[in-house]
Amino acid sequence: MAISLSKGGNVSLSKEAPGLTSILVGLGWDPRVTDGIDFDLDASVFICGENGKVRSDEDFIFYRNLSGLGGAVEHLGDNRTGEGEGDDEQVKIDLSKIPADVKKLVFVVTIHEAEKQSQNFGQVSNAFMRILNQDGGAVLAQYDLSEDYSTETAMIFGEIYRHNEEWKMKAIGAGFAGGLGPLATAHGVNVG
Amino acid sequence: MTVLGPGANAPLTLNDLTVLIRHGTIPGADIDVSAFLVAASGKVRSDADMCFYGQPSVAGGTVALSGSGNGEARFAVGLGRVPAGVEKVVFTATIHENRASFSRVPEITLDAGGIRGAIPCAGMTETALILAELYQRNGAWKFRVVGQGFNGGLAALAKHLGVEIAEPAPPAPTPPPVPASTPAPPPISAPASTPTPTPNPSPTPNPSPVPPPSTTPVNLSKVSLTKQNNTVSLTKEDGRFGKIQVNLNWNQSQTQKKAGFFSRGSVAIDLDLGAFVETRDGKRHVVQALGSGFGDFQQAPFVRLLGDDRTGSTSDGEWLEINGDRWADIKRVLVYAFIYEGVPNWKETDGVVRVLVPGQPEVEIRMNEFEQDGSMCAVVGVDNHNGQVRVSRQVTFHSGHKALDKQYDWGFRWTAGRK
Lengths: 192, 419
What we know:
The structure holds two protein chains of two kinds. Chain A is mainly β. Chain A contains three helices and 13 strands; from the N terminus they run ββαβββββββαββββα. In chain A, a hairpin with a 2-residue loop joins strand 12 and strand 13. The longest helix of chain A has 7 residues, at 180-186. Chain B folds into two domains: 3-161, sav2460 like domains (Lipoxygenase-1, Sandwich), CATH 2.60.60; 222-408, Sandwich (Lipoxygenase-1).
């Protein structure tokens, strides 16, 4: 039974699935049903150390850098696995291979060229983030972002973090002004 | 106070609220505003959940189109009475017959119980727009500005919302079948306390004892009478047409802008609606505000003019009512518009006359031959043609009542009058 989180809530993934080693993070939203320019949404991950910043630029996982931590974090881009039906973008994470100095992984979604297209999250329906157990495909936790956004163009959906010996998920649902660039800078990435 | 843009939302504090939509006007293209009661599926439960000019009150008056015209529409919404199963009230605007896109208006503004919104329309290719929605979140109602739509107009929008729309029918001499047992539908201006029942015209026996909730598509058809296509005949088996309404509306905004809010001086154009009526007994009547000949609905001439609007306070123009239940007593009606004061500039007035017969497609006549001079325009003839209501477009221009009379061979004796 999947735990449904609301904004600010958290859940222990390790408790939900004892012996959990590998997860699939699914991010999704409804495609545009009206005419006009499609919403081009991109999911990215910041792999952060103790100070809440990336340890190096390699820890910024996005459409031009799809793999991190020697393959322990793998951005699958569009959902092509058939698993996790309904996800628009998926990130595969082998928790057992994440080094001890990594404290959290932050999942963000940004609207490509949002300003230019006059688009924002308030026009996107049914955005969600969810965690699946790679072993068996069970949904461990789900966070439905609807209504936690309005005219934002970049959103921090949630994070997966280490708490003592457990892995937990926290629902964030916070908007961020300026898009992916400023978001990356805020997480310690040197954006060139 | 903040103004919400597309995508933004805000909580509503009122349970009974007015939703005001200001969309402006596009010369030569009508903008129709509607509201849809939508279930969790994003679709209407049935066609009875669509609130529009042909069905101005739905769900027992929970959502009612309380007024429209002059570039705006107003809905009264009782959120506390929204039926279970309805999750959203979706407001839309469509441009009739896709004659233009929404880029022709600068913006559409909204006011939902004091919460304001604005949709910038520059560059829009859409001819149908979802303007905004009232929706429930955690048991409370919120208002969201949407501003997205469809290039395919009403048809695409209706499909999106699960409404079946009748194909725009050409003006046909044969009316849609009406079950003989069904009483005459109420006039469309009357607020219906219950959703208007949609009769099932299918004569084929239904194998199931319970008929499907609605198999009759919503009839959105309007008949536009043009030079080429200038007559339509409406038939009713029992010969009783209910209250036939004739509306004259025109663009008052440009003239008001010039004249200022309080001064309706010589710049303002005041259009008056009137009619010549011939009853079955051969008597001829003039129904118009000038000379206080407002007519009578219950007795001859069975045509009456509703109060003349010279204040500009009512936005839907002037109304003439013909007693269609006494149709047998009426021989012919010639409806005209005239400019009582101001320069006869028909182009600026952009006048439209609509003939509304209960249960029949709306007939629309645009007075769009503006090169004409003359303060008088014969707009439409409504004639008793073997019991049918024959509506024929005239749109001919004349210097005054006398000239009009002569042209149409009525034979009145004219003296000067004032209203």
